[in-house]
């Protein structure tokens, strides 16, 4: 059922948020970390809607901290501390799951979030399938701008890997005979494994 999936998604995202908090909280200057509130499934056999969800009521201004469709420009996302930390949380999960999973629809009051979604690649991730389209992952990759919290956590910029890939593709088409010799030389430079990976794309 939709209600069951909603619970599963939010509580899965909540587990990631706890791991994120455990890594971020000890960092000097990071401060408060956003939390996803728990959502509970209740069974009411006598009711005509037998299953419902229960969660803590959030009081205050409800804000969406992550973009859903690209057209929505939300300054609170960029300018507020909670918004920046939510974007960093998305980046952290994306990196932790090797780009297979993204927590979407981060929204709530202050640092307390609810009603979140999860996007996964088509095949899912570790047996889990999200409830949002894969295009959210592509959109995040294209739109995310790292902030100071991404830097504190040592997350890799998504932009540079994008540009590197584009460069290697364009040089490959121009100098096709060289591309094979370049490939042979790169693995010897043990210090730059990432360049090697991007030249393979």
TrEMBL record:
One of its GO terms (cellular component) is basolateral plasma membrane. It is found in: Basolateral cell membrane. GO terms for molecular function: ATP binding; protein serine/threonine kinase activity. Residues 164-201 are annotated as: Disordered. Its main location: membrane. Keywords: Cell membrane, Disulfide bond, Immunoglobulin domain, Kinase, Membrane, Repeat, Serine/threonine-protein kinase, Transferase. Signal peptide: none annotated. It is an enzyme of class 2 (transferase). Residues 1-158 form the Alpha-type protein kinase domain. Residues 189-201 have a biased composition (Basic and acidic residues). It catalyses: L-threonyl-[protein] + ATP = O-phospho-L-threonyl-[protein] + ADP + H(+); L-seryl-[protein] + ATP = O-phospho-L-seryl-[protein] + ADP + H(+). The keyword DNA damage does not apply. It comes from the Eukaryota. Its EC number is 2.7.11.1. Belongs to the protein kinase superfamily. Alpha-type protein kinase family. ALPK subfamily. This is Alpha-protein kinase 2. The gene is Alpk2.
């Amino acid at each position: 059922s939709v209600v069951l999936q909603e619970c599963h998604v939010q509580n899965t995202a909540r587990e990631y948020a706890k791991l994120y908090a455990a890594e971020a909280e000890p960092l000097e200057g990071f401060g408060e970390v956003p939390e996803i509130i728990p959502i509970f499934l209740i069974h009411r056999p006598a009711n005509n809607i037998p299953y419902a969800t229960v969660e803590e009521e959030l009081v205050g201004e409800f804000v969406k901290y992550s973009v859903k469709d690209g057209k929505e420009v939300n300054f609170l996302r960029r300018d507020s501390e909670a918004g920046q930390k939510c974007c960093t949380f998305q980046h952290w999960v994306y990196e932790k799951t090797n780009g297979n999973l993204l927590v979407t629809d981060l929204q709530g009051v202050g640092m307390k979030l609810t009603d979140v979604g999860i996007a996964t690649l088509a095949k899912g991730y570790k047996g889990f399938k999200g409830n949002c389209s894969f295009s959210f992952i592509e959109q995040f990759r294209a739109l995310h701008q790292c902030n100071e919290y991404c830097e504190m956590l040592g997350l890799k910029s998504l932009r540079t890997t994008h540009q590197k890939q584009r460069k290697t593709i364009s040089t490959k088409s121009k100098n096709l005979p060289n591309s094979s010799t370049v490939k042979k030389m790169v693995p010897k430079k043990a210090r730059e494994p990432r360049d090697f990976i991007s030249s393979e794309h």
